[in-house]
Amino acid sequence: xxxxxxxxxxxxxxxxxxxxxxxxxxxxxxxxxxxxxxxxxxxxxxxxxxxxxxxxxxxxxxxxxxxxxxxxxxxxxxxxxxxxxxxxxxxxxxxxxxxxxxxxxxxxxxxxxxxxxxxxxxxxxxxxxxxxxxxxxxxxxxxxxxxxxxxxxxxxxxxxxxx
Length: 163
Prior knowledge:
Elements lengths: L3 E8 L4 E7 L6 H15 L8 H4 L18 H19 L4 H7 L3 H4 L3 H15 L5 H29 L1
Helix pairs in contact: 6-7
């Protein structure tokens, strides 16, 4: 709040010095007197007939005027941006090696043990909800059998390497 010393002068009627300040907020007793008068006016009963409450439809929402605060240039900007991205990604962009790697094969083939963890989680989910888990359990048994075969083959290769 910036206060500025506007002036200082002597009041001849009361023999006292007055300092006038200018500020962003007004600290005056006139506001207090006006608020007190307003409160007295509010304390008196008001007429309902002829007021805005009497004329208003009770089924209508409280604020009937919907103000659209979106700028007028928002729609064209968003449309042009989306159109440019779609043209680039759908038409102009060429495939690269990352796209080829991502499009080939399953994620279960790339990450060892992911399918087993996923099946165990699905089995728990299905059992909690009382659903059939027989197909999931057979696939889990197949995965465990494949894992045992891989483990046995690695052991045999290690033994051959030692000899």
